[in-house]
Amino acid sequence: MDQQVGKQSLRFTKAPFILESASMGGKKEGEGPIGHQIDVVGEDDRFGCDKWEEAESTLQKEALTLAMGKAGVKPEQIRYLYAGDLLGQTIATSFGLLDFEIPLFGVYGACSTAGESLGLASMAVAAGYADLAAVVTSSHFASAEKQFRFPLEYANQRPLCSTWTVTGSGAFLLCNEDFLRKREKKPQGRGVRITGITTGKIVDYGVRDSMNMGAAMAPAAADCIYSHLKDFQRDPSYYDKIITGDLGAVGQEILIELLRQRNVDISGNHTDCGLEIFDNEEQGTGSGGSGCGCSAVTLSAHFLPKLRSGELKRILFVPTGALLSKISFNEGQNVPGIAHAVVIESEG
Amino acid sequence: MDQQVGKQSLRFTKAPFILESASMGGKKEGEGPIGHQIDVVGEDDRFGCDKWEEAESTLQKEALTLAMGKAGVKPEQIRYLYAGDLLGQTIATSFGLLDFEIPLFGVYGACSTAGESLGLASMAVAAGYADLAAVVTSSHFASAEKQFRFPLEYANQRPLCSTWTVTGSGAFLLCNEDFLRKREKKPQGRGVRITGITTGKIVDYGVRDSMNMGAAMAPAAADCIYSHLKDFQRDPSYYDKIITGDLGAVGQEILIELLRQRNVDISGNHTDCGLEIFDNEEQGTGSGGSGCGCSAVTLSAHFLPKLRSGELKRILFVPTGALLSKISFNEGQNVPGIAHAVVIESEG
Fold first, then answer.
1. Burial B204-243 (b: 16+ CB within 10 A, else e)
2. Which NCBIfam families match (chains A, B) (predicted)?
């Protein structure tokens, strides 16, 4: 019964399974260190569309279709869909997921959306509100640059601290134990479950540089990870990996230092999806990858297989978001951050 | 145990209470038919701010502060906050709710956000994930016109079918029975509970006119209400009122006709928050009020008191959203709709 843990965490007594997942990536993502693990990599970043926003919608549609195909489930079996993206009014989601006709909870948590959505979907499955639920998030380099910074044609120079928005989408199917046991087709490898979550607060350290998102998000990541460890009374070493979403190299350094100031050392087991998905030196991606797609693709393509194989037993997945818009940025507002932590463990 | 009802609905066995709520409105809202019921009405629509977006953030901050004040609760007692607005990257929410330091689930459902957020918060409280949770949504006429249509200075003419974005915010505190019983301060009047929800799907009838949102949203409202009645095997007469969010006069007519074609007659007990909040003829508000604030303010100021007094026993509250952005509109995309239904009942 004791589901509420500490001040802002939940422990699921009926922990949902990640039944299946799928990832889509763009050309650059395909050329990166985990490119060979991404399910489908596009030849260009248009994915057969005329507009960048439509291309991003296509990424979401294909990622969910692929996850359903792998799992052998149909849209009508999915009770609720939790999804979001970075674009104004989350249009990549609205137009990408329209055709599935699945009841939809639209989510906005900037680049933390994968963490927020996995959290909400886990809550629903663990509570018995859904036997099967889906999570989809995406980002696209070109639609994000257009939305937040400059038109691509302007070819602006990028500071080294800037991150590179990942073109990609990840989709996840979450189910309860009953649903899994009843299926003829079992997922390969070990069962992987979401056993708890820590929902983050907005944290504002006064960063105003939209070209340095790592610095904007690191304080929120530190706050969420610190709260998580405190709520669960765990040491960082409980986890094989603590994996933030898209802090990049600059944000990673700040995160580790902020936690060290609070006597928590994650330097030994921290990594960041933005550092896994690109080789910054080889690929010219500045501080690392970013976007709602960054953490979702890296979790699906790179970390879930390691959990299925048993190479990893327990991870803390912490997607990080920078809360800004073109308007708030132009009006001189700060860029506050938010992060949401998800505990993912492999069975047996 | 049987919480899942039909294809897309939930019945809460431990139905959460609406502990308290509060509403903020602009000048025009204050002059409308329910103006005297809104908790705080601004003298102008700036609420002491220089920018429209900041004014909207202030509306959210004040609405939540007011609801907490009425209930005598502190931010640290609120376990989770579910909130959203219409602006790109939901900045009214990010900057309005930052200071409360409450773990936040950011939500985007266009003008259906109040329904989606109340649904998610109810799910959390009913499942035992939170003893007390909060919901906040807002909209602002000036920030929305700037975001979706034309600068106000342009003074464009508006067709009669267009709706008028409500300047306002509503905040709701949801709690479980234990939390309510333990309090010394009881809410006045009868207990009001959220006993079920029906989560909507995106519905696209091909409407492309961003000046006729009622027509864009009516098909989604019809689909959600039809599914709700089917899932719960209820007749429309089960409800004293079926209350959509912001269809306005044009959308109302379409909704009633669409349901009539499916042999469901809601003409006797349907109303729309957009028709309650403004007197279209007197106030020149076209087809009626709209926005995330419209349904939230009208529920808090007008309908909840009627449920507390027993004048209404059961309502179906169905906020409606039009899924568009400046970009999707300019790129010639349709305006699909979504709607989320919440069953609200008074005790005894």
1. bbebeebbbbbbbbbbbbbbbbbbbbbbbeeebeebbbbb
2. PRK08304.1
User: Is residue B186 over pLDDT 80?
Assistant: no
Instruction: Identify the pLDDT of residue B1.
Output: 53
Same domain assignment for residues A225 and A312: yes
d(C-alpha A286, C-alpha A272), whole Å: 14
Residues B82 and B231 in one domain: no
- Residue finishing a domain among A181, A205, A225: A181
Is residue B346 within 8 Å of B191, Cβ to Cβ? yes
CA distances A299 to A55, A342, B60, B347, Å, are 21, 11, 35, 46
- pLDDT recorded at residue A2: 67
Residues 43 through 62 of chain B touching chain A, CB cutoff 8 Å: 51, 53-54
Given this model, what pLDDT does residue A1 score?
52
Subunit contact B338:A128, Cβ cutoff 8 A: no
- Nearest C-alpha of chain A: how many angstroms from B37? 31
* Rounded Cα distance, B45 and B5, in Å: 43
Q: Domain containing A26: what range?
A: 4-181
Residue type (1 letter), A149: R
Q: Would residue B109 be called left, alpha or beta, if left means φ above 0 and alpha means ψ between -120 and 50 degrees?
A: alpha
Q: Do B128 and A95 touch (CB under 8 A)?
A: no
Task: Report A:86-105 residues touching B (Cβ under 8 A).
Answer: 86-91, 94-95, 97-98, 101-105
pLDDT, one tens digit per residue, over A278-332 is 999 999 999 999 999 999 999 999 999 999 999 999 999 999 999 988 899 889 8
> Of A177, A168, A198, whose CA–CA distance to A126 is shortest?
A177
Distance between B90 CA and the closest CA of chain A, angstroms: 7
Range with lowest mean pLDDT among A145-159, A194-208, B174-188: A145-159
Asked whether residue A189 is assigned to any structural domain, the reply reads no
Domain boundary among A181, A206, A227: A181
